[in-house]
Amino acid sequence: MTTRRGNDATSDVPPEVEDPPAALLARTAASLGRWPAWAGYAAGVFSLAGAGLALYWAAGGTRGVPPHGAGTARTAAWPAAAVLLTGGIMAVASVRDVGRQMPRWWALTALWAACALTASGTFGFVMNAIQLLFTASVDDWSWFGVECLCAVGAALFGGAAVAFRRRTAGTCARCGLVHARAGTRPRPAPPSPASRAMRRTAFAGALGFLPYVAMKTTWAFGGTFAGISGDEAVAEFKRNGASGLVLTLERYGLDFTTLMALLGVFLLMGLTHSWGQVFPRWAPPLAGRRVPRWLPLAPAWLGALTLAPYGVIATACYVVPPLLGLGGLPHKGLLQGWSGWTITACGVGAFAVYGVSLGAAAWDFQRRTRPVCGPADVAGNGKSGGARPRSVTSASS
Predict the structure, then answer these.
(1) Which domain holds residue 244?
(2) Given CA atoms 141, 146, 150, 152 in this order, what sign does their dihedral have?
(3) What's the pLDDT score for residue 254?
(4) Is residue 185 one of the residues assigned to a domain?
(5) Hey, which of 17, 84, 327, 329 would disulfide with 26, CB 3.0 to 4.6 Å?
(6) Is residue 15 part of a domain?
(7) Which 3-state string (H, E, C) describes 141-179?
């Protein structure tokens, strides 16, 4: 990224961030900033891997098959392979001249279909990642690998679709605006908090966790919640194969899911406040540096894609029906009768409210922080001196 010849230096990273770890973050952000140039090609390569995996399942392979949907996965393998291959072809075409010679909707339909398909494969990613963090293991390693692969694919197909839509609309593929093609480079949007309505949405998502945190904290301190004692909850952890770390935390009154909920609230607040765009003073040595957009957006979208569908569907299937007399109460393990219903409602209700709020906050943050291309600074004015002018990526870069 940085080339030095004598006293001259050219770099995509401004001089004020030429020190680790800020330089590493800046270089990563610069590479990601050129995503319109490589997203289509990367999506094309991904489609080969994804289609190959789907055909492997269709042929009877078992590695990486969803734990609770092996039959469905094999039935859907052929259509999934077709969607991925079509999406891959259109992804590569979208960054070549041939993409402009076909109806625009062809490529966009194929790319967004492939994006939706791969995004659906990330459904349990966050749950498995949390389990891995606190137990050093997951229920199915091969399926967790597929979930990671799907997350990458969804980002690549989505990025290729957005870049193609912008190019064919005559706007800049990076920022979506109309400006001169040469002598520009993406500039971060100025830090700005979310609107009052969005901040209220974020607070609602945080408050949705209160019953869940109260329940888990009560158990962690040995109390009783909804007729279930803390000892019974810890015993359930042991039966489910919880690690020694998790059990140790529980003994000291620290429930690991409560800690993750607090981190989730922290992420939600960062998405709606200006300190989520610029590292605050209490985050040395990065204080005052720009927060790369991908740093909050990646976990936010992954969390929203997992928790929102899970919470909403589970609430509709298990929480609402007993209230309307349309379904029975839970009868499994510790979850018995209205006591089990209360525990279920605290859990899936929190995921539903938080997941929807997180998705809304992520969308708003992505919109507010979208870089806008501006004139490249070639004179060295103390802000980006020595930076090379770069042209905006065009249709056939």
Answers:
(1) 196-368
(2) positive
(3) 66
(4) no
(5) 17
(6) no
(7) HHHHHHHHHHHHHHHHHHHHHHHHHHHHCCCCCCCCCCC
